[in-house]
Amino acid sequence: MDSIIVRGNGPLSGQIPIAGAKNACLTLMPATLLSEEPLTLTNAPRLSDIKTMSLLLQSLGAEVTSLQDGKVVAMSSHDLNNHIADYDIVRKMRASNLVLGPMLARLGQAVVSLPGGCAIGARPMDLHIHGLEALGAEIELKEGYLHAKAPKGLKGAIVELAFASVGATENIMMAATLAKGTTVIKNAAREPEIVDLATCLRSMGAEIDGDGTSEITIQGVDRLHGATHPVVTDRIELGTYMLAPAFCGGEVELLGGRLDLVGAFAEKLHAAGIDIEETKAGLKVARKNGRVKAVDITTEPYPGFPTDLQAQMMALLCTAEGTSVLEEKIFENRFMHAPELIRMGASIEVHGGTATVQGVDQLKGAPVMATDLRASVSLILAGLAAEGETIVNRVYHLDRGYERVEDKLGNVGAHIERVQET
């Protein structure tokens, strides 16, 4: 297994290009199953999760080609010959469940293994199932697989989500595009990835209104056609690299960054004493006045503070002046990075879904273990602010969500290298 070695760093300077959004691309790729015509995605991120989704789609009979060094994904589902999403692929990545809605809509049947992904708490499929059943699907769980069918086809309905689940909103949206009649999703997720999916589906001929709000209306159509669509900027990668100069000092410009994608996060950074400036090319972030200040964080669905930036922010607050309280309201098991930060000298107390962080003057380098995707990058950032050398083990998580992290950070002056297991 690869490890990443990070050494305590001085100020950073330069530019970091921000990739297309992993979570958006993994949602857009299953949309190819809705049409016989080609769907091409540009600005795709070069990540292992994208390869996993490609393998899943290919296992269903879709053609998937990676072009331009992985930045373009060209797909065609004109000859689907399988409706079973196998456990051996689905277990690697939770987003695999997003083939369920499109296959039901296009083929009238789907067998999908219960999904895997990072072990950050229970993320049940109940909302997906209830939403698709409201559209007329019949779904049964047998031996770890969801067996779904729509013998009379899908029909529009009012679907009210008990929680504003991103994945459930996406699955129901895609299924509803080919359902007969009108579907209204109430308490829908509002994330930029939802808007990006709706934009792509509209370019394929879908009739969708209200994306970006808590109520989305989809008028079903008979068929969708092909399209070319650019993947939206990755707001989580953007937020992560916005933190790099906050840890190390200096000034970094994030190319392609958009303030509207990270509003709640940027507000907390500003409160901590970090300067953020919009430029023609993106966002410029700088820390110029000593230690950051303590701030309190509560994770919430978009447009609130993202759970996917909580671990990185906790790492920053370990060196802040004062005491910060972080409340995790999305996933109940997302403080697994705290013990690893404590190994580096952080002062953190965790009680249930709340972590109290007392800032220290200096973190110390140590061997640490990445427990999930976002935790892995939080430990790398902490290593940049630590005295001495930090070795981050089990970084296979990292490659699921961050492309070439050592190159991007190294190009702005970070002391970071990947060591491959011999």
Give the overall form.
elongated
Largest sheet, order of strands side by side?
23-25-1-26
Structural class: alpha/beta
| Residue windows where pLDDT falls under 50 for at least 5 positions | 117-123
Continuous helix count: 13
**From the structure provided, what is the oligomeric state, counting identical versus distinct chains?**
single chain
Please, could you describe this protein's structure?
This protein is α/β, with parallel strands linked by helices and 422 residues long. It is built from 13 helices and 26 strands. It has a four-stranded mixed β-sheet with strand order 23-25-1-26. Strands 2-15-17-16 form a four-stranded mixed β-sheet, covered by helices on one side. Strand 16 (275-278) and strand 17 (282-287) form a beta hairpin. The chain starts with a strand and ends with a strand.
Quick structural overview:
It is built from 13 helices and 26 strands. The chain has helices at 22-28, 48-59, 87-90, 100-107, 126-134, 166-176, 192-203, 235-248, 263-271, 310-317, 338-343, 373-384, 405-410, and strands spanning 3-7, 12-17, 39-42, 63-67, 72-76, 84-85, 109-113, 138-142, 145-149, 158-160, 182-186, 207-209, 215-219, 227-230, 250-255, 275-278, 282-287, 297-298, 323-327, 347-351, 354-358, 363-364, 367-369, 386-387, 389-393, 415-419. The strands form seven sheets. A four-stranded mixed beta sheet has the order 23-25-1-26. A four-stranded mixed beta sheet has the order 2-15-17-16, with helices on one face.
